UniProtKB/TrEMBL annotation:
Acyltransferase in keyword set: yes
Name of this protein: Cyclodipeptide synthase
Single Gene Ontology MF annotation: aminoacyltransferase activity
Family: Belongs to the CDPS family.
Organism: Nonomuraea endophytica
């Protein structure tokens, strides 16, 4: 499935046959959005929102919070005051883009929240405890560190390489995301959901592999979702 009538062309890549079945059930989708990521323009967000409300019955938009966004800048070596100032600016800019996207898509009531709003819930803590078990395991921990390293290197000079300490700092963002990878279904209180991001990585795909030691919770899926419309740059 990569197109619905009346929407721009959208590429959809489920991480497994199970993820495809959950998406086909049309119950719910959890859209992850990262402030500071240039992919998430207002035009792409509007196109994604239009596609999502046609593809499933209910949609949630989850935005990285201040701690997560600042962690990326801190891990790239920015001073703390600069990292938080830049993170606040990114979050403010993303909130404005989301408002424009909802208005453009005709979806002013679309639910948008930040990760921090869910961090105190029992199901978030359950997902986080499970994710931390995976992080401590040699099957998964190195995958997450490698994925965090790659994310930190994006938009940095070609010869820049994060230190182990910088990767540790970047893991704040990665770790806080994982409950919505493995247990958005429980956190949001839905029967089934697919969590969606613009690009899957080996550390997110891992939880949906048949032979993985740690698997996403029942009813939880994951897809890559990218808009391919020339006007959405």
């Amino acid at each position: 499935m990569n197109h619905l009538a009346g929407t721009p062309l959208v590429d959809v890549e489920p991480c497994s046959a199970r993820c495809a079945r959950i998406l086909a059930g049309r119950e719910h989708i959890t859209l992850l959005v990262s402030p500071g990521n240039p992919y998430f323009s207002a035009a792409r967000l509007a196109a994604t929102f239009r596609w999502a409300v046609q593809a499933v019955k209910r949609v949630d938009v989850l935005v990285s919070d201040l701690e997560m966004t600042a962690a990326t800048y801190l891990a790239r070596g920015r001073p703390e005051h600069h990292a938080y100032r830049r993170a606040r600016a990114d979050i403010s800019q993303m909130a404005a883009r989301i408002r424009r996207a909802r208005d453009t898509a005709g979806l002013p009531g679309l639910r948008v929240s930040e990760f921090a709003e869910w961090a105190g819930t029992a199901e978030y803590r359950r997902g986080l405890a499970y994710a931390r078990q995976a992080i401590a395991d040699p099957d998964y921990g190195p995958l997450l560190r490698a994925g965090t390293r790659d994310a930190l290197m994006a938009r940095m000079p070609q010869d820049w390489e994060p230190t182990p300490r910088q990767i540790d700092i970047g893991l704040v963002h990665s770790e806080k995301t994982l409950p919505f990878i493995v247990n958005a279904v429980g956190i949001l209180g839905v029967s089934e959901t697919v969590t969606a991001y613009s690009r899957p990585t080996p550390d997110t795909r891992y939880f949906f592999l048949d032979g993985a030691k740690f698997r996403a919770f029942p009813g939880q899926g994951y897809i890559a979702l990218r808009v391919r419309e020339p006007g959405c740059a």
